[in-house]
Amino acid sequence: MTLKRCSLLFAFLASLVSAQTPLATPTTAVLMSLTVKADVDRARIMKVMPDEVRDTVKLYLDGKIQQWYSRADGMGVVFILNCTTLEEAKTLMGSLPLAKNNLVNLEFTALGPLKPLRLLLAPPMETSTKQ
Predict the structure, then answer these.
(1) Burial class of residue 44 (count of CB atoms within 10 Å of its CB; 0-12, 13-18, 19+)
(2) CB–CB of 8/94 below 8 Å?
(3) Domain count, the chain
(4) 19 plus 76 within the same structural domain
(5) Helical residues (DSSP H) of 20-76, grouped into ranges
(6) Residue 120: what pLDDT?
(7) What is the pLDDT of residues 8-53, one digit of tens each?
(8) In the chain, fewer beta carbons within 10 Å around the N or the C end?
(9) Which of 39-53, 74-88, 105-119 has the lowest mean pLDDT?
(10) What CATH number should be reported for the domain holding residue 68?
């Protein structure tokens, strides 16, 4: 494909995106990052951990936690939650002992389908057979 054709294709795709009303991306999962608060004594964390682990495993077995990872820096964990709203995810994670005891920071990010893939569903651009 020539540079000119690539430029035309990108211009066409850009016009499709700007001409269409953006569709809301549905939330299909929630990314949650848990980090221990800087001023929290490690002994307080360790006292709560048996209950935290038990409750977290229960959420996993109930299908609420899809994936779970330790952070490579050792400062917490990251979960991908099977939730369709941030509120649901916040309620789930807020019910765990570390959060209830205000020992951790929780950050939530709604996840959904890769929206730019919709461009692949656009009708094909007509090409000229003339050179």
Answers:
(1) middle
(2) no
(3) 2
(4) no
(5) 42-61
(6) 81
(7) 666 666 665 555 556 688 999 999 999 999 999 999 999 999 999 9
(8) C
(9) 105-119
(10) 3.30.70.1060
3-state secondary structure at position 97:
helix
Angle at 78 between CA 75 and CA 79, to 5 degrees: 150
Indicate whether 46 and 79 sit together in one domain: yes
β-partners of residue 65 are: 81
18 with 35, same domain? no
In a domain, 73, yes or no: yes
- Domain that includes residue 17, residue range: 3-23+115-121
Domain membership flag for residue 15: yes
Cα separation, 42 vs 49, in Å, equals 11
Q: Quote the pLDDT of residue 34.
A: 97
Q: Among 17-26, 34-43, 73-82, 106-115, which stretch is predicted with the lowest mean pLDDT?
A: 17-26
Cα angle 115, 124, 7; round to 5: 80
48 and 19 in one domain? no
Residues in the chain: 131
- Which amino acid type is present at position 93? M
